[in-house]
Amino acid sequence: MDTMKLIALALFEECGIEAERLTPEVHLLSDLGIDSLDLLNASFRIEKDCGVKLPFRDWLALEYGDTAPDRSPFLIREICDFLEAGRSAAGRGPESEAFDTKPAQA
Fold it and tell me: What residue spans define the domains of the chain?
């Protein structure tokens, strides 16, 4: 199953979000209004299905920290890229650039 389908299935089963609402540019928090408990449940499901640990704590710190990132780690495409890179590193999927959880240096 491809990464987008895995995410869509987890978001539907854990949060009740229909797959038709998901596009690469959808933001999990602001566009879908996922609350913290649903986000946690969906992330556990995605981690289990993909075998890749999601650094949501780091991503939340980036999203709501003092300096805004150039791109949000909560965009569906960024999560897909991160998972695909992790799966590739583990020999389980296509190679892709991961989302850097480290803030850019000024």
Answer: 3-89
| 48-56: long-range contacts, CB 8 A cutoff, minimum separation 24 | 49/6, 49/9, 49/10, 50/3, 50/6, 50/83, 50/86, 50/87, 50/92, 51/86, 51/87, 51/90, 51/92, 52/82, 52/83, 52/86, 52/87, 52/90, 53/86, 54/79, 54/82, 54/83, 55/101
Span between the terminal Cα atoms of the chain, in Å: 40
CATH class of the domain defined by 3-89: mainly alpha
Predicted confidence (pLDDT) per residue in 26-60, tens digit: 998 889 988 888 988 999 999 998 889 998 888 88
Amino acid letter at 95? Answer: E
